[in-house]
Write a structure and sequence with these properties.
Oligomer: homodimer
Strand order of the largest sheet of chain A: 1-2
Largest interface: A-B, 78 and 78 residues
Radius of gyration of chain A: 23 Å
Strand content of chain A: 5-15%
Number of helices of chain A: 8
Helix content of chain A: 55-70%
Order of helices and strands of chain A: HHHEEHHHHH
Largest sheet of chain A: 2 strands, antiparallel
Chain lengths: 207, 207
DNA sequence: GGGGTCATGTAATAGGTTACATGATTCT
DNA sequence: AGAATCATGTAACCTATTACATGACCCC
């Protein structure tokens, strides 16, 4: 259901959140988002930021506070959070935390069409995926360690912990899946394989 | 890195996949996608389908085969897969299976800003989330059982099994997180709470 | 002092979603 | 026969991503 918000891009949520600290101009916001590592959890790109800021302003969640100019640099418009913005931030976050939305992770999509590849190849590809997953996991763990070493409290790395959980779950799923193909119970793998053997590399989808 | 595909929408992948069975016109494709339950794993909506079909045609992955007319209904253009399309299907799928992409699940984003809500409220919201997750899990499981009862082999429900895995992982993460707030080690929760107590309901973000 | 890259923003393009349109079929 | 729903597609709109622009600062 998920109430239709005036501004839907999650980048906007990050903007609202950071503006509770102090008024800022868009570029500064972008810089802050990058520095705090928010861009690993919320898709960020330069262009979208300006768009989102405009949308938030039009919706009344933030307001132009001053337009200063520093030397000959382009004008920087500083925005501040409004009361409506503060409310929106809290309501939106509440909804996100309380209500899981149906999403479409790429691997789910891929699995739903996996029959289009022959089982032997799938096993091989999944093996490579497992390495990639392990790499990612190690990378995140390193990030976590580094951050904690700087004295940052757990609260600020919860999302990275969650990512690790997700990666672990995916890895063990993939392992189980591989095993179910290489040591099959029943004959479904045979059927799957036969399908591709007959039509060497243009098998019809099994889905 | 993920090579830039001429058509990026995953709906296009499903289209290619279904066209390996036989040529179809767009509406039929949509119908089939819905019937086979693909729309639970790949975002589908009517408008996007026509867009994607056009894109695929322009890219040479599918080709207009005939334009039949049935009574006074609008013309139906039937599309068939080309060799390039068959290749694209396989390569794309391979890439998706082999290489995990960085994604932005909403809950990850929410967690990254969770400090903007006070811990007491977060605990409450997470409790509700757990119920929702359990509901979803039950729903998927019911789907799985129903499908299996119809004699469909495991291969075609792998993606639903994976979803269940993901839901379980998320649930247990949330449980652990709740526990870490209600039975905290160290004083980070106190700090978090104090933050919101001082500024009754307009706390600055802790991130 | 010329070449890169930082700071800052606007504009053009492409992608996707919603809304609209209309004949055909089915239901009551 | 009128209402609802199916079948089928087009068009308008909104969002997001890329590309473009330009002065300032820094490096060698």
């Amino acid at each position: 259901m998920a109430k239709k918000r005036k501004v839907g891009n999650l980048l906007a949520l990050a903007v609202l959140s950071h503006l509770t600290e102090r008024p800022m101009h868009p570029y500064e916001l972008g810089r802050t988002l990058q520095d705090r590592g928010d861009s690993r959890s919320i898709k960020f790109n330069h262009g979208s930021l300006y768009m989102v800021v405009q949308q938030l302003a039009k919706a009344g969640f933030i307001a132009e506070q001053e337009t200063s100019r520093d030397g000959q640099r382009p004008e920087r418009t500083v925005y501040a959070l409004t009361d409506a913005g503060r409310t929106e931030l809290r309501e939106w976050l509440r909804e996100l935390v309380e209500t899981p939305e149906h999403e479409y992770p790429q691997f789910v999509s891929a699995l739903s069409l996996i029959g289009a590849l022959p089982p032997g190849e799938v096993v091989e590809l999944l093996g490579r995926r497992l390495s990639h997953l392990a790499e990612q996991r190690a990378g995140i763990q390193a990030e976590i360690d580094k951050t904690l070493a700087q004295g940052v409290p757990e609260l600020f790395i919860v999302e990275e912990r969650f990512r690790v959980t997700l990666l672990d779950a995916e890895s063990s799923f993939v392992e189980r899946f591989v095993k179910s193909i290489t040591e099959p119970e029943g004959d479904w793998v045979k059927v799957w394989d036969a399908f591709h053997s007959r039509q060497p590399s243009s098998g019809e989808p099994l889905s």
